Automatic annotation (TrEMBL):
Domain of life: Bacteria
Organism (species): Lichenibacterium minor
Record bears the keyword Transport: no
Cited Gene3D superfamilies: 3.30.465.10, CBS-domain
Name of the protein this chain belongs to: HlyC/CorC family transporter
């Protein structure tokens, strides 16, 4: 479950009315709008402390998630483009196997020259079967016909994917995945570019919580406190979570429309910062970019201006990154 989906779930939880007669009930009575809907009745029943003996805590949480699923759209649950792991048509089956091994996924999207040229997906089961001599469509073939050097484009293992808009309701996508028996969808923006990716597991996790299998590795925390009042943060860390960690509200002014700490730093400096750049923020905090690529800030250090750098701070990396940033600015001037 990604950060945007968790934030959407949190907003639903805050919006859930307390048990008993709430404001909306009184408004309905004043304007003669009639009784609450069945959905409202169920939500009130779940909030009623007396129902704890009927439903377990886990059951209540799952039922709330089911009721809130109709409010979620694809954009709320998708894996953003920057985090999509995909393979290209030009890659050999051996290279694709390496990506499967490193990513730990059972399905990978396939693209042409770029991710904006999607061609389908490849499933690890089809991939393994064709390597051992069994065609995914049931046709027998000699095992020597396909090797690890065979290009993915000619391996006949590419399956179709769904293409959906960001505004599509998550529940509608779930039905479409069930009907088509296709468990991966690429999110396409209004210009025809790839905006992100959604799997059926992403939708199910919105109901039951995170699903981890034997091959899922424990993710490092997105925010880590260091000595001296500094913090290490992943660029994908939610701005609300970072604000809570540092004890200062960073979601003020223009930041109200920004979801992640990496997005805030990019907005503050007016361009995509390079490794080593130090960006001045408000509330006496500075942001040092430790890692970045041409699309996003990947990792950064948050430091109060009166705090000393940590003893293990990579001075050589920072200075090299600063020189890199200065050289880039000189070339663009």
């Amino acid at each position: 479950m990604n950060d945007r989906a968790r934030e959407a779930a949190a907003r639903r939880a805050k919006a859930t009315p307390p048990s008993g007669q709430g404001l909306f009930d009184r408004v309905r009575a004043v304007f003669g709008l009639g009784a609450p809907s069945i959905r409202d009745d169920i939500e009130d029943a779940l909030e009623d402390t007396g129902s704890e003996s009927v439903f377990s805590t886990q059951e209540r949480a799952m039922m709330r998630n089911v009721l809130g699923l109709h409010e979620l759209r694809v954009v709320d649950i998708m894996v953003p483009r920057a985090d999509v792991i995909a393979v290209g048509l030009h890659m050999s089956l051996g290279e694709v196997l390496d990506v499967f091994r490193e990513a730990g996924h059972s399905r990978l999207p396939v693209h042409g020259d770029t991710l904006d040229d999607p061609r389908g997906m490849v499933h690890i089961r089809d991939f393994v079967e064709i390597l051992v001599g069994h065609h995914p469509k049931g046709e027998a073939r000699p095992s020597a016909a396909v090797t690890l050097a065979t290009p993915l484009e000619t391996g006949e293992v590419i399956r179709p994917v769904l293409f959906v808009p960001p505004s599509m309701q998550a529940l509608d996508l779930l039905r479409k995945m069930q009907a088509s028996r296709t468990h991966m969808a690429l999110v396409i923006d209004e210009y025809g570019g790839t905006d992100g990716l959604v799997t059926i597991e992403d939708i199910v996790e919105m109901i039951v919580g995170d699903i981890e299998d034997e091959h899922d590795e424990e993710e490092a925390p997105l925010i880590e406190a260091e000595a001296g009042g500094t913090y290490l943060a992943d660029g994908r860390a939610a701005l609300d979570d970072v604000s809570a960690a540092v004890g200062v509200d960073l979601t003020v002014g223009d930041a109200e429309e920004i979801d992640t700490i990496g997005g805030l730093v990019t907005a503050l400096c007016g361009h995509l910062p390079l490794r080593g750049e130090v960006v001045t923020g408000h509330a006496d905090f500075d942001f040092e970019v430790l890692d970045a690529d041409p699309r996003r800030v990947k990792r950064l250090r948050i430091r109060a201006r009166d705090a000393a750098p940590p003893d293990d701070a990579p001075d050589d990396t920072t200075s090299a990154g600063s020189a890199e940033a200065e050289a880039a600015r000189t070339q663009t001037a």
